[in-house]
Amino acid sequence: MKVVVLTGAGISAESGVPTFRDADGLWEGHRVEDVATPEAFLADPETVHRFYDARRAALTKVLPNAAHHALAELERLIGDHLTLVTQNIDDLHERAGSERVIHMHGELRSALCLRCGRRTRWEGSLLDAPPCAGCGKGVLRPDVVWFGEVPYAMEAIGDALAECDLFVSVGTSGAVYPAASFVQQARAYGARTLELNLVPSVGTHFFHEARHGRAGDLVPAWVSRLIGQ
Ligand code: NAD
Fold this sequence. Notes:
Elements: E1 3-7, H1 32-35, H2 38-43, H3 45-58, H4 66-78, E2 82-86, H5 92-96, E3 101-103, E4 106-113, E5 119-121, E6 140-144, H6 154-163, E7 166-170, H7 182-188, E8 192-197, E9 209-212, H8 215-226
Parallel strand pairs: 1-2, 1-7, 2-3, 7-8, 8-9
Antiparallel strand pairs: 4-5, 4-6
Helix pairs in contact: 4-8, 6-7
The protein binds nicotinamide-adenine-dinucleotide.
């Protein structure tokens, strides 16, 4: 059986990484337009760098939770029959042991050269960063997909959605496109669809089945049942 799992900010909430839409529509006190758009970066790169520098630094204080570990275990068991797509820019899936994660919205621990497009592993601050090591000239920006930009790996994701037997969405509000439309795509190709989220998502009615609760409880229980334990 081929499975596609889409994860969102909710899967990392129990690790202590704040979600985006739960509290007040602000992301760590910022309006999305001010920190997560190309226009914001052009207008005020310093504020945008400080925001992502703080998110990157905060990764050192959090650990993967039971939901990340359960998905890593599923990958160990079914290998490339699992396609794990995350909207998250944290690295908690990898730190739980997942080896083939598609980061459709990019990664905090990566920098992108505005000139040559090279992606470089990045742990520290991007404020006053040296020029790109690849072309020697380009300015580096956070390697995250901002609102209005095209997500990474859309072709590979589309292929996986077309081929899967089961599509599972975990911890996502269903408000950010194109990820919010994956359930309809998978369903159109004949997959069964399951939502695992704290509360019903915006698109909960698109799923064959929805279970509501904490990812740290729901995901390990779902994986155990799937692998027959
Ligand atoms: P979102 O914040 O819009 O929605 C999160 C969803 O998770 C909500 O529906 C909420 O009810 C649910 N949730 C909260 N706690 C949960 C828990 N313990 N168990 C299960 N579900 C829980 O997140 P989104 O849909 O991923 O969209 C936000 C965008 O912001 C994404 O594009 C993402 O790149 C970015 N973002 C990323 C991170 C991260 O990398 N961890 C954090 C915040 C925002």
